[in-house]
Amino acid sequence: MKRMDESPGVAQREQDSKPGIAEHELVALRAQFSGELVLPGADGYTAARGVWNGLIDKKPALIARAAAAADVAVVVRFAQRVQLPLAVRGGGHNVAGNGTVDDGIVLDLGALRDVSVDPVSATVRVAAGALLRDVDQATAPFGLAVPLGVVSATGVGGLTLGGGLGWLTRAYGLTVDNLVSAEIVTAAGNVVWSSHNENPELFWAIRGGGGNFGVVTAFTFQAQRLAPLVFAGNLIYAQPQWRQALRAYEVWTRDIPDELTSILTFMVPPASWDLGDEPRLVIGFVWAGEDITAGERVIASLREVAPPDVEVVEPMPWTQWQSAVDELFPRGARAYWKNLAFDEMDDAVLEVLMRRGAEQNWYGTGFDIHHLGGAFGRVAEKATPFPNRDARFWLNVYGFWPDAADDAARIAFVRGLAADMDAFAAGGQYVNFVGEEAGTDPLALAREAYGPQKLRRLREVKHEFDPDNVFRLNHNIPPR
């Protein structure tokens, strides 16, 4: 019975704060959990429930902020005991918003950011909530780098489990190609190690299959040697030069060393670039070799046949380059992405790219084309779930706008360009570049992403380690 001196507002907030979770269950959880439990109505709940993508607005019944790896198994068991859906959040940079859930439990790993480097073996142990910048800052003093993504605020966990495209892909492969082992909490709440020698099928599955098989609490990577200064930069073209630049790029990328990774981008640059408000074609690159002079020659061979209107090219610290485009993807931006692989930049493809690129007379969408091959392409197709190692290019079409009034137009642009490029698609989906698609059949998406043979193998692993699909709030792979 409500006390006479207790206001209805307080009573209502207390009732609303624990939907589906009995008080005695919360008491039991607090006794085992060393982190912070955030309930609706509590101070900080609104901030705690927010995710990177501003389009995603969900209200969990409970946010459990882990303070130690041991907290993970506690929450995994708890979620099953109270029969509520469980979302796992690492660094929180997932475009689909898989790190949250309405009326369920969010396991937030964001406080687990320890990174330890063994300079002798060049291995790096990374906790589940670490960001790319945490790893880069830890490895750079030793002349090392783990091949990661292109935005320093990205979480290492989600990036790795999906594959890990970035600025070192041609030199050293995907992030998963550099993974040595992982510590994983399974749906049963057990802690297992996974590597080529221990639980090898599970190790295969987590290298591209997403967070379907458990919660990784620690990753161990083989780092790669990287000079203190990398030769990197952007060649920037106004619209009159696009056709010449694209044709030159198509030819140039057929015969360049593995040390050179490039990403071709169409967008209206941010105001800080001081390039005006017209769309631009940007060819960004990193030379991962120690001989900067050799890298300069490779870039000069492109510049000679496609002189840029503007260029910003120089040796710079790796951490500086890795954070160079962070401003494009701020937390809270409204985001929607699509992606596909393709193999040729013939005239038909160029017409689509130039037409769609020119349509962008706003700041708030863009599209990247990752040039692949090199170390990425030498990994056997069956070695990881990541699809299509033969792909020459990978397109990511993305929106990053602040105003809800622009939602329909920006999403339509992303969908329209992806639809135009479907005719040239070579197969596969990179799950880290897949946005939220309400009502999408998860099995159909998984089949499109991985193909039937890999999906069959992934479902076998899922059945073994998560037969009840506890870890389903992701780009889901249903058990067989």
Keywords:
globular, five-stranded antiparallel sheet, 480 residues, alpha+beta, Uridine Diphospho-n-acetylenolpyruvylglucosamine Reductase, domain 3, Uridine Diphospho-n-acetylenolpyruvylglucosamine Reductase, domain 2, Vanillyl-alcohol Oxidase, Chain A, domain 3, 3 domains, seven-stranded antiparallel sheet
**CATH-derived topology of the largest domain:** Vanillyl-alcohol Oxidase, Chain A, domain 3
For the record, give the distance between the C-alpha atoms at the N and C termini, rounded to a whole number. Answer: 49 Å
Structure classification: alpha+beta
Mean pLDDT: 94
CATH class of the largest domain: Alpha Beta
Determine the number of helices (DSSP H or I, runs of at least 4 residues). 16
**Radius of gyration from CA coordinates:** 23 Å
β-strand number? 18
GO molecular function: FAD binding; oxidoreductase activity
Protein name: FAD/FMN-containing dehydrogenase
Cofactor: FAD
Keywords: FAD, Flavoprotein, Oxidoreductase
What does this structure look like?
With 480 residues, this protein is of the alpha+beta class. The protein has three domains: 16-108, 2-Layer Sandwich (Uridine Diphospho-n-acetylenolpyruvylglucosamine Reductase, domain 2), CATH 3.30.43.10; 115-225 and 439-465, Uridine Diphospho-n-acetylenolpyruvylglucosamine Reductase, domain 3, CATH 3.30.465.10; 229-433, Vanillyl-alcohol Oxidase, Chain A, domain 3 (3-Layer(aba) Sandwich). The protein has helices spanning 8-16, 23-32, 45-49, 70-81, 132-139, 156-162, 169-172, 200-206, 242-252, 292-305, 318-322, 347-359, 374-378, 407-421, 442-450, 452-465; strands spanning 36-38, 62-65, 86-89, 105-108, 115-118, 123-127, 144-145, 179-185, 191-195, 215-222, 224-225, 229-237, 260-267, 280-287, 310-317, 334-342, 365-371, 393-401. Strands 15-12-14-13-17-18-16 form a seven-stranded antiparallel beta sheet. Strand 8 and strand 9 (191-195) form a beta hairpin. Helix 12 (347-359) runs antiparallel to helix 14. The chain is globular and about 70 Å long. Residues 1-18 have low confidence and may be disordered.
